[in-house]
Amino acid sequence: MKKLAVIGWPIAHSYSPLMHNYISREMNADYVYEAVETPPEKLGEIVSKLKADGVLGFNVTAPHKFNVMQYLDEISQDAQYFGAVNTVLNKNGKLIGYNTDAEGFYEALCYSGINPDGKHVLMLGAGGAAQPVAINLVKKCASLTVTNRTKERLFELKDVVKNCTGANIKTEIDRETYDIIINCTSLGMGNNIGMSPLSDMSIIGKDTYCVDMIYNPWETQFLKDAKKAGAKCVNGLSMLIFQGILAYRIFTGIDAPLSLADGIEKEILAHRNIVLTGFMASGKTVVGKALAEKLGRKFVDSDVLIEEKCGRTIPEIFEKYGEEYFRSVEAQVIEEISLEKGAVIATGGGVVLNGDNIAVLRKNATIVNLEPTKEVVISRLSNDDGTRPLNKGQDIEQILDRFENRKPFYDNCDVKVKITDEMSVEDSLSAVLKGLEGKI
Ligand code: S3P
Q: Do residues 196 and 221 both lie within one domain?
């Protein structure tokens, strides 16, 4: 069995092993691909070890795409221009660095029916992710405009692109609309969730494609806004898939077809978890179980795992150790659950209060929020039987206050499903399935 790998930090949630092992199965090729957690201070050591172990090639992801270059014997022209390596081939003990990100992005666009050749393209952001794409696209499209918050970096990119290709990028918006608008910033992900690099929606025409390099969350604020403005949208997953197919070809010499992309996407979607969030009694557990059954997936309940971990019921944990302790165990359990594959996960009502919980779950999940109406909260929680410690001694007005206060936290989701009093479990399940269309 020949060995391949990906290095990065953190790397546990990477889709690369899944993707490359899928390609090997499809191509009947004898390779095994695994993720190697590589903290920055161990980069050199791990690269030497991979080489000594006879690994045939490895992918490189954040934060090592630049720093890995010092450990390589040769670097392709493209990767030198891009200032980043994402693919390393071990050719008879010689490490050669390549970069398939930009070509992968280009292929992803074409595959989605958006050939950028001869088009007017606007890129938002001039950072590390933008540079390879700008260098790759500038000579293919009719015009390439890049905007960036800091002008210094923008002009640096303009110079790099000019030096590498001889072509000029524009640095100011000078058209009424663009054919393709690409988000190359990190606005919309991690701590920047809900933010978008584009406020002026008027530059989106009726045939504009909006593309995001981000796929976690599945639909960034930029794509949500763009969709509302009538644009056709593509997220960053296909870019990930195509850079992977191109890297696989470099590693193995096998001409893996681009048409594998569909199968890879299905494989990734089936591997992603579905997380249900929502206020107490919104139906996360009941609907979650029904969803898991319907989809043939495993069901996991974070509160059950907390009880198992502590050997006590939730009311006992609150009573004996207090809420703060409960939240710390909850965060640990959420981190563990985030490593589930293809599961339906029901979370306790307060999980959303800690943004890190949602961020770690989202690395491999679509977040579905069940949003009960006020009437549902009243009807289901007015006579709470005392199993929910937070409601102990609280009247319905106080419970409704908590519900209102938590609403912004529940908005941190990919799909929102309204739950009304009239809805049966089957109705809620259908509504969830509808919201998940194209995402599972
Ligand atoms: C909580 C909700 C409960 C449980 C704990 C805290 C909350 O789960 O995690 O009592 O803060 O809303 P349910 O939402 O399943 O009731």
A: yes
416 counts as catalytic: no
Q: Which atom of ligand 1 is nearest to the CA of 280?
A: 14
Structural domain including 245 reads: 2-99+240-263
pLDDT confidence of residue 103: 97
pLDDT digits (tens, 9 = 90+) for 201-257: 999 998 999 999 999 899 999 999 999 999 999 999 999 999 999 999 999 999 999
Query: Measuring from atom 12 of ligand 1, which residue has the nearest CA?
Result: 349
- Would the pLDDT of 387 be above 90? no
Neighbouring CB atoms inside 10 A of 193's CB total 18
410 & 341 share domain = yes
Are 219 and 128 contained in the same domain?
yes
288 in contact with ligand 1, CB cutoff 6 A: no
In a domain, residue 252? The reply is yes
The tally of domains found in the chain comes to 3
Q: Residue 319 corresponds to which tokens in the numbers above?
A: 């009573």
- Are residue 65 and residue 121 in the same domain, yes or no? no
**pLDDT recorded at residue 384:** 76
Report which secondary-structure segment, H or E, holds 269. Answer: helix 261-271
Residue 351: CATH number of its domain: 3.40.50.300
For 9, the token pair is 């930090």
Distance 349 CA to ligand 1 centre (A): 4
Whether 136 and 246 share a structural domain = no
CA 102 to chain centre: 18
CA angle 287, 325, 327 (to 5 degrees): 35
Instruction: Answer whether 278 contacts ligand 1 (Cβ < 6 A).
Output: no
pLDDT band for position 191 (cuts 50, 70, 90): confident
How confident is the model at residue 383, as a pLDDT? 82
